[in-house]
Every structure is written in structure tokens, then in C-alpha cells.
Amino acid sequence: MKLKKYIKKFTFQNIYLLGAICDAVLLFSVLAYLTTTSVFIKYVNETIALSMFESRNEQLVEIFKIITYFGETKIIALLVLMTLPFLWKKNKKPEIFTLLTAVGGSGVLIYIFKHIMKAPRPEFSTIIETSYSFPSGHSTITIAFYGLLIWYFFIRGNTNLKNVMKAIVTTAVALLIPLSRLILGVHYFFDIIGGIILGTVCLLTGIVIFRFVEGYLRVKHN
User: Could you list the residue range(s) of the whole structural domain that residue 23 is in?
Assistant: First the structure.
């Protein structure tokens, strides 16, 4: 009975976050549909891809090859695995649930939607990619993982100078990684937008789960 009452109270207190998740899911669904049916979306994608190819700078490409590396699934998975023992030692159960939900969930959703959409990659890619194009996996997992770090440093944590600087650097990385996918020619523009939206769904879901677990543990121990 206590759990049932807590769920009702929690839903009411976090209705804006739950609403934002629903809006993001709807927006992603609409974009996914338009990606396969809209002539305008196809035109914008191909125009931007061609423009990026024609203005490509080799030095810039090499820089963004390094930046895009920080959005690789294996790198973020390694960072997560390095973080989990620290959180477990500190008894940070809500943070563990949040991290696994947001990052793990994003990985699962990337795989599912790529194989549903089966969208081809741009022709002007600078690196070889074997997976499908929509949505951008780098963009999705970047928003989910680095977004959590920004939330933890700047919103959840103390807003001291050290945390603010961490949040600024993390935000820069989170913005540059999706941009790198466009500059390297491995994604179309709306692949990246789709990945950002899907990553936002994972990020907000992780935050909701954090609040739920943290609040429930507090109620349980009172």
C-alpha cells in the first residue's frame, strides 16, 4: 500500500518529466516516419551531406576523427564499467540504476531502430561504418551518457566552480560528437537529430528512475 501511494505521489510530482519523455518519443516517431517518406527530409539530408563533402578540410577531418572516438560505444561502455565499482562502493544505488538504464537502454534502442529503419549511410563517408544510418548511435549514446554527467555535475551536484567547469567541458564534448558525425560524412543531418532526440528520451528516463529509486529508498527507510 505504501508503494502504491508513493507511485501516485511520484507521478504527480514528476508529471512534467514524464510529459517531456512522451513528447520526445512522439517527436522521434514522427521524424522516423518522415525520414522514409518525406521528399523534403531527403533533400535537406542530401544537400547538407554534399555541402559538407565539398567544403571538407583534411586537417579538420583528422581533428574530428579524434573527437568522434569519445562517442564510440566501446569507449562509453568502458567508462561506465569503470564508474560502477566506484558507485557501488559509495552505495549510490540510484545512480547505478540511472546509469544502466540511460546508457544500456540507449544501446538497445540504437540496435532496434537501426534494424527497423535500415537507412543507408551517406556516400561521402571518410571512415568505414557497417551499421545502418538512422538514428545516429554516437549522438544517441552521447546525449544519454554525457547528458547524465552534465546533470550530475551542474544540477544534481553542488554548483561550485569545479563542477561548473566540468559541466562546461562535458557540454562541449556532447555537442562536438554529433557534429563530428556530420563533418566526417558518416551520417545525414536528420540521423543526428533523431539520435539526439532518442538520447534525450534515454537521459530523461534515467533521471526519472533516479528520482523514483532515491525517493522510494528514502520512504522505505523512514
Answer: 2-221
